[in-house]
Amino acid sequence: MSGTTRRYLRPAAALAAAAALALTGCTADSGSSDGQTGFISDPKGGLDTAPVASRQTAPAISGTTLHGDKAALADYRGKIVVLNVWGSWCNPCRAEAKGLQEVWSKYRDQDVQFLGINTRDPDVNNAVRFEDSFGITYPSLYDPDGTEILKFPKGSLNPQSIPTTIVVDRQGRLAARSMRPISAEDLEKLLQPVLAEPK
To answer: Which residues fall within 8 angstroms of residue 17, CB to CB, at 6 or more apart?
Structure first.
């Protein structure tokens, strides 16, 4: 296979995976032998938490934000990070946006950082307009082809639908996940136990 063919195949594969991600809403199999196991699913569905001993290290998420700055998950080691995977085209993302900003405003001075991952937006201006419309003040990486999302290992508390919200603990491990539009109340339920853990 030529180098030119490889260059075109990788973006195409990433785009196909991102498209599939948007269409799936399945929960992770806690019995999987691939990656993280032993996490606990909320009986109401869509919320998962991992005991400290079962947590897997989050992948090396990094890139350029919607406003052209560089950002990486590793920049926030020592803080709890709330990752939110979203797209401006996504109605459920609109439903949760104000609640995310509300929780960010409440906890940003308590060693908590929010970081969005914007995906499947071919024009960054659409994503910027979304943030302006909902008053979002935390940064978001621009990941139109889903490259950063694909870094999450299979079987971990990984994004399997859009929107997905993931809580990363102070040691950079995957602690909790919501695979549905999350309310401010439910996000606090995921965040507060991690916040209460020893530093």
So the answer is: 146, 149, 150
pLDDT at site 45: 60
The predicted-structure confidence for 94-153, as pLDDT tens digits, reads as follows 999 999 999 999 999 999 999 999 999 999 999 999 999 999 999 999 999 999 999 998
Residue 31 pLDDT: 32
Q: How many CB atoms lie within 10 A of CB 51?
A: 10
CA distance 91 to 73: 26
Q: Give yes or no for a contact between 137 and 161, defined as CB atoms under 8 angstroms apart.
A: no
Taking Cα atoms as reference points, which of 124, 20, 17, 5 lies closest to residue 63?
124
Edge-first strand order for the sheet with 174-178 is 40-41, 47-49, 174-178, 164-168, 80-86, 112-119, 140-143
101-138 as b/e: b if 16+ CB within 10 A: bebbeebeeeebbbbbbbbbbeebeebbebbeebebeb
| Higher-confidence position of 15 and 79 | 79
Residues 163 and 173: their CA atoms lie apart, in Å, by: 20
Spatial contact of 173 and 56, defined as CB atoms under 8 Å apart: yes
